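User: Predict the full complex structure for these chains.
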Amino acid sequence: EAQVTQNPRYLITVTGKKLTVTCSQNMNHEYMSWYRQDPGLGLRQIYYSMNVEVTDKGDVPEGYKVSRKEKRNFPLILESPSPNQTSLYFCASSPGIQGYVLSFGQGTRLTVV
Amino acid sequence: KNEVEQSPQNLTAQEGEFITINCSYSVGISALHWLQQHPGGGIVSLFMLSSGKKKHGRLIATINIQEKHSSLHITASHPRDSAVYICAVRNIGGGADGLTFGKGTHLIIQP
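Assistant: Here is the predicted structure of the two-chain assembly.
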């Protein structure tokens, strides 16, 4: 089944403890992206990647890192999480950036205490 | 940066009613997406359009590029249509611009 898989689905962590949210797609998509969703603010893009080894900042990249060493994986790294990074996170992918619908992962609900 | 406005923010309707959700944006775009987010949180892409109209089952999406406006219609609405509907636009221009999202329309269909 074609899908975007995020892990974990739920995570509670403490301030400052590094964490990684994984994202993997099995559709050979070139474009991958991370978003966070907060009440009243909607979805906002954190980082995106056009292809392997090509990443760029979105609208809210502060406090996050990403890497794209393989086409299928696009992990989101929080080196030192803070409570303001408590949010619902989505990974998405598409064959390219223009002219394609996005396929979303199931979401990761992160709480930083 | 594009400003995306959705209306209404909240909508409660009875089963069977015809539903319209609107999306307006401020700057020219290359494409507009409609997304559906169910209470469980997952997001599904419904449509991507750059002109005209698309239909899938009971869902119809239209876009008027000149007026910078799109509508999502649901015919013969059903309680399972209850969800948040999100409009997102991709800006015209060079480079890899990201999507700009509306804040969503929370739709409840009562039996």
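Chain A touches chain B through 27 residues (CB under 8 Å).
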